[in-house]
Amino acid sequence: MEQLGANRGQSNKEKAARRSPAYESIQGRIKRMGKQFRAAPSRKERTILLKKLLELKRHRQAIPVYSTRHQTKLGYIRYADDFVILVNGTQEEAIDIKNKVEGHLEPIRITLPRERR
């Protein structure tokens, strides 16, 4: 399954490239406001900053972290003597992957049941 690219993780560089610019902007503002909050000398200033900080955090929750999906199209899960293949793509891609898996299993005389999809 690894030869087919199943359950491929992603590097930190790939994760960073997918990050949403809007999310990153809000995250930076929260970080700067947190520093201001910790440095605020009076209780009144901290209260005002805390309200703004909580509002920014609520706004951040509505924004997706990533702007694009992870490119892995194939995953699998094993349980005892069964396995499930997960395909993130079209039906044609799923059929193609199923044929490739059958090709890998053929030399060891394992066949996939025909009634399952």
Question: How large a portion of the residues is in β-strands, by DSSP E?
Answer: 5-15%
Radius of gyration: 24 Å
Estimate nothing, just give the exact number of structural domains.
2
Approximately how much helix is present in the residues? 40-55%
Q: Got a strand count?
A: 2
Largest sheet: 2 strands, antiparallel
Give the distance, in angstroms, between the N- and C-terminal Cα atoms.
17 Å
Q: Whole-number average pLDDT? A: 84
User: Would you tell me the structural class of the helices and strands?
Assistant: mainly alpha
Low-confidence stretches: none
Output the strand order for the largest sheet: 1-2
Shape: rod-shaped
Provide tags for this entry.
117 residues, mainly alpha, rod-shaped
Describe the model.
There is one protein chain. The protein is mostly helical. The protein contains four helices and two strands; from the N terminus they run αααββα. A two-stranded antiparallel sheet has the order 1-2. A hairpin with a 2-residue loop joins strand 1 and strand 2 (82-87). Helix 2 packs antiparallel against helix 3.
